[in-house]
Design a protein that fits this description.
The complex is a heterodimer of chains A (114) and B (115). With 114 residues, chain A is mostly beta strands. Chain A is 0% helix and 49% strand. In chain A, strands 2, 5, 6, 10, 11 and 12 form a six-stranded mixed beta sheet that branches. In chain A, strands 3-9-8-7 form a four-stranded antiparallel beta sheet, with no helix packed on it. Chain B contains no helices and eleven strands. The radius of gyration of chain B is 13 Å and the shape is globular. Classes of the chains: A mainly beta (114), B mainly beta (115).
């Protein structure tokens, strides 16, 4: 079945460092891909998404590009801030939106040092 | 924004008792709600899809008589863990789909500990 694999954490970086969190997926069709973020004590929030190959999702300085040839959707940010400390989940769905079943990766905890 | 709440946020119960978890969409109507379960350092696993006014659809391997789901209104779904056992201890997360943008909005989760 469909699945998502993302790099294990925790990841600890200094403020203003470059961030990459790797994510690869396995799917039989043409899924939509998502990154969700969970701040302490809050629910998961959609960070960005891409619905077809070569699409780039972006939000709050984060970017991820849907790479069909490598089945990847790596999350990047050029300069992280302390406020980016959270758990990040890569996910996929067979629907263009997130209205249907979502398959999540295991999550990567990110900690940013001042 | 769209807000989903869960109650309680944390619950401890004795083995053999039943526990009810509420999931509410506070500022939108959710025809569809989802229930997930998350083990430590693992993915969120979908347990069931709940549609208002109809029976929930359970994922393979999830016991429907163990995890009772009720979605009686467009803003409330409940998950009841019946005759809970220590292996049911987990983090339970719900989400609601806002029709306007077909997006799932997640609650903050409920941590269940069964002694």
């Amino acid at each position: 079945g469909d699945s998502v694999t993302q790099m294990e954490g925790p990841v600890t970086l200094s403020e203003e460092a470059f961030l990459t969190i790797n994510c690869t997926y396995t799917a039989t069709g043409y899924p939509s891909l998502f990154w969700y973020v969970q701040y302490p004590g809050e629910g998961l929030q959609l960070l960005l998404k891409a619905t077809k190959a070569d699409d780039k999702g972006s939000n709050k300085g984060f970017e991820a590009t849907y790479r069909k040839e490598t089945t990847s959707f790596h999350l990047e940010k050029g300069s992280v801030q302390v406020s980016d400390s959270a758990v990040y989940f890569c996910a996929l769905s067979d629907h263009w939106s997130s209205a249907s079943k979502i398959i999540f990766g295991s999550g990567t905890r990110l900690s940013i040092r001042p | 924004g769209a807000v989903v709440s869960q109650h309680p946020s944390r619950v401890i119960c004795k083995s053999g008792t039943s526990v009810k978890i509420e999931c509410r969409s506070l500022d939108f109507q959710a025809t569809t709600m989802f229930w997930y379960r998350q083990f430590p350092k693992q993915s969120l696993m979908l347990m069931a899809t709940s549609n208002e006014g109809s029976k929930a659809t359970y994922e393979q391997g999830v016991e429907k008589d163990k995890f009772l789901i009720n979605h009686a209104s467009l803003t409330l779904s409940t998950l009841t863990v019946t005759s809970a056992h220590p292996e049911d201890s987990s983090f339970y997360i719900c989400s609601g789909v806002r029709d306007r943008d077909e997006t799932q909005y997640f609650g903050p989760g409920t941590r269940l500990l069964v002694l």
